[in-house]
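Example with several molecule types.
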Amino acid sequence: MRDAGRIAAMVLDYITPHVVAGANTLDLDAKIEKFIKDNGAVSATIGYKGYKHASCISLNDVVCHGIPSVKTVLKNGDILNIDVTVIVNGFYGDTSRMYWVGEVSEAAKKLTRVTYDAMMAGINVVKSGLPLNEIGNEIERVVAPHGYGIVREYCGHGLGRKFHEDPMVLHYAHPAPNSPKLRKGLTFTVEPMVNIGGWRTFTENDGWTVRTVDGTLSAQFEHSIAVTDDGVEILTESPMGFKFPPYL
Ligand code: MF3
Ligand code: CO
Ligand code: CO
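Resulting structure tokens for the full complex:
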């Protein structure tokens, strides 16, 4: 799991200098696919439920599962999430980060920072014995004061020898008196999607692209993590030390 996580994080490091105005997202995806292969890993998303690409690239009001396209050309002021999942020796590593193109609005910067802080708050509370629902409670504690919407239809997930498995990790506060307790060795993702407006989303007719209903900007970060003896280990930490934008 460490090897898979590290290579997934290396992909996001590698693509960073290529995320510039004028780049199209199909070209970014092609670069990502090649980098994954060159590092001896396999893309988990190519062929997954009919998905054809090595990354999801989600711009502005796209919440997740944006399909790379030659027609999607980055422009100054865009914010985007790039999400990659790789398989290494049968194990999955799944991670995503936000990127900024040129000068972005103060509103976009704040959304990005709050979403990162929310993910990290959800991760940092993790330890053996913690009721699973406390992760969502913690994320909502960070997001709520800003009035943003936390997406409810998509959640974090267990991963290991499979892409998506139990448990489902909800990113919003919810009472759960019988919430299962985390145990050492459990590996899963924390990947909150946060919208400036409401939490509601819809899926386009392409069957993948998820957008905010109200058209407001959406941000997401994702780490794969492991519950350890004394807390938590982030498996997809950036080897280059990239946390949130601006990176360079
Ligand atoms: N990487 C996404 C996740 O965090 C799943 C993408 S599935 C795809 O779970 F088919 F859209 F690529
Ligand atoms: Co995931
Ligand atoms: Co992902």
